[in-house]
Prior knowledge:
By secondary structure, the protein is α+β, with helices and mostly antiparallel strands. It contains 5 helices and 9 strands, in the order αβαββββββαββαα.
Amino acid sequence: MDDTDTIKMDLIASWIEQEWLPRFPDQDMLTLIASDSCVHQEVLDTFDTENTLGETGFRFTGTEPVVCPIIPRFCDFNTDSGTLTFRTGAYVYHFRAEDQTVDVLVVSSYASRYYDMAALACMPREFLPVWTEFSKETNRMSGALAPTSKVIIIGGQNSSFVPTVEWDDIILPRDLKRDILSDVNSFFTKGIDVYKRLKLKPFRKLLLAGVPGTGKTMLCSALAKWAIE
């Protein structure tokens, strides 16, 4: 972040403090730096407003613009895909639970000649867990817009890896190998639709057990490469 980024962030924060926070004198409000993915137009346009955010009970229901004289509203445009990407300006993000509605102010702008985004979000402090779940989902969706050959590792020493093992190189009993691949394949062809009907995030686990050197990591790499292809 260069000096231009800092100046732009300070201007946004000052506007929020002067124009937005006085509307909520009785609430403990929090202003924080927002992820770029939270102001990605394609992500917001395709966000599933029917699914709850984690275990919070809240759903993201959409946005509406707010007049902010220091930040003009416009969208960047991907000429290769023909889609809208990052947007600038001030917006209220609406979140709803069964008996509660919470609004979050999000203000974003391009901050420097390097096209870095400066984005701040202002919300009740107690709403932070919901915003965290929303940010995780927008990050996931933003990453899916530009897929790579990397596989994310959860709970391991490394964060990701590029699978290189071919499925044909795996040596296992024929029936076992067929059953494993069939189980994984059925998740993509059938299981995902079941999860969607139940309004749940598609998720599948396989437990591989064995002493070191029996090929668990190689099997995971081969399955990952097969799935990506």
